[in-house]
Amino acid sequence: EIVVSLIEMTKDVDSGDILEQTMLQLDGSELYDEIRQVQADVTFGLIDKFLKSYPVFVRRAQVGESSFFRK
């Protein structure tokens, strides 16, 4: 299980409030293109859910320090 989050953009990377969150399920047999498709579907689903509920939504502050890892 992988947590996928829609977070508010802020000046600092990965430091905005969590606006929506869901789980991405993989069984370990997926190929790269399949993983990318599942990731896209989950991401677009989060955005759609947020837009349908806007402006009524619950924001949650992230816990811990922000992190950013360059490729």
Q: Round the Cα radius of gyration to an integer and report it.
A: 14 Å
- Indicate the overall shape: globular
Oligomer: single chain
- Low-confidence stretches at least 5 residues in length (pLDDT < 50)? none
Write the layout of secondary structure elements.
Blueprint: E1 2-7, E2 18-24, H1 32-53
Antiparallel strand pairs: 1-2
Structure description:
With 71 residues, the chain is an alpha+beta fold. The chain contains one helix and two strands; from the N terminus they run ββα. It has one helix at 32-53, and strands at 2-7, 18-24. A two-stranded antiparallel ribbon has the order 1-2. The protein starts with a strand and ends in an 18-residue tail after the last helix.
What is this structure, in a nutshell?
With 71 residues, this protein is an alpha+beta fold. Helix content is 31%, strand content 18%.
Main attributes?
71 residues, alpha+beta, two-stranded antiparallel ribbon, 1 helix, 31% helix, 18% strand, globular
